Amino acid sequence: MELKFPYTYKHIHAFKKAWHIPPRWIDNNQSPPENIIEAVRLASKAVESHPERHIPFSNIPLMMHQKWDTTQLLGTKEMILSYIETWLTDAISPPPGSSEMAYFLWDNEGVLTLMEEYENDLVSDFVEVFSPVEKVDIFRIAVCKWFGGIYGDVDTKALKHPSQWIHSADISEWADGMTGKSYGLNDTTLANISKSSGQPLPVNAIWGIECDTDPNTNAHWRMAYTYPVQLTNWAFASASNHPILHYFLDCLKEKAAEARDRVLKHPGTSLSELHYDPVTRTGPVAVTEATNWWLEKHDDLRWNALTGLKDGGKTKLVGDVLILPITGFSPTDEKYSRMGEKSWDDPDARLAHKAMGSWHHTNIIVEYGKFCRSFFGLCKDWQKMW
């Protein structure tokens, strides 16, 4: 490991504390943090009043969060280690024109401590109601709610440094072809932001599309997606305290209450025996619904206007939320694309996801449902993950 993945070995496995904060971010008289909570607090404070420590055109700090069960990485798949190494390399030795980042690899203990200290009213539900994969879904939202930053699953590979994720064209004005309503920044506003460092920065959240299909067809659910335009949660970025993140976490209370009510109505059943689809309850469907709620309420967005099928995959700013086209977080390394996603080397590709999720479990009902949807166009509402 030390030879193949030197940064991963030095800053995680051997360090046993699993974080890196750029030395220039830390005052000489600052005591070193003792745990990951102290470390993320220190980094969060260090980015204040430093625009260069944020993604350009945004208030999103260059703080990378990832999650793995343990920081002892011997025995971990080399592919996973190689992807962690790419993120650490971007953090420690960024390419020319890019900025240093802080990096945090959260283990189970660190995640539970975060929830206990910052989301105490959710802790009992977090521990008792939600499955391991749902806990990771919840964690990623909670850590960005409180500290901001970038989240990426450990099976994501950095293709472009986050300090290169937003350019002026990405936040320029665009219009919904159906309603005529305009979003993004007009030329005057864009010019003022580019010229003056004192202008408010427009972006507070970044999401990427994982499903982009014609809403007038059943293509999305035949491919096991809930919405024709659906966001991914394997990667996103946000400033702290974004309303979308608050709403997502607030909705968990109702979901947990529903699960507890099911147990009460079925004596002899435990919470661990209930089966919920994590994709729907805490995963991509849940973040899509939270983002849709906010943009519809706050910016009067027609959700399906976000499609990139008719404009070649344009990045779209709506309010303070930047929606990347499917290529942004879901580029393809295959010869053919299903939904207009372009290749890993396309300028729009920020990261790639290899979908190595160890949380997937084979289940005959789920597998038959896939076959049924794909070949017969039936079984629309069958559970998609177990």
TrEMBL record:
One of its GO terms (biological process) is protein N-linked glycosylation. It comes from the Eukaryota. GO terms for cellular component: mannan polymerase complex. GO terms for molecular function: alpha-1,6-mannosyltransferase activity. Transmembrane segments: none annotated. Pfam families: Gly_transf_sug. PANTHER family: INITIATION-SPECIFIC ALPHA-1,6-MANNOSYLTRANSFERASE (PTHR31834), TRANSFERASE, PUTATIVE (AFU_ORTHOLOGUE AFUA_8G02040)-RELATED (PTHR31834:SF10). Belongs to the glycosyltransferase 32 family. This is Glycosyltransferase family 32 protein. It comes from Hypocrea atroviridis (strain ATCC 20476 / IMI 206040). The lineage of its organism: Eukaryota, Fungi, Dikarya, Ascomycota, Pezizomycotina.
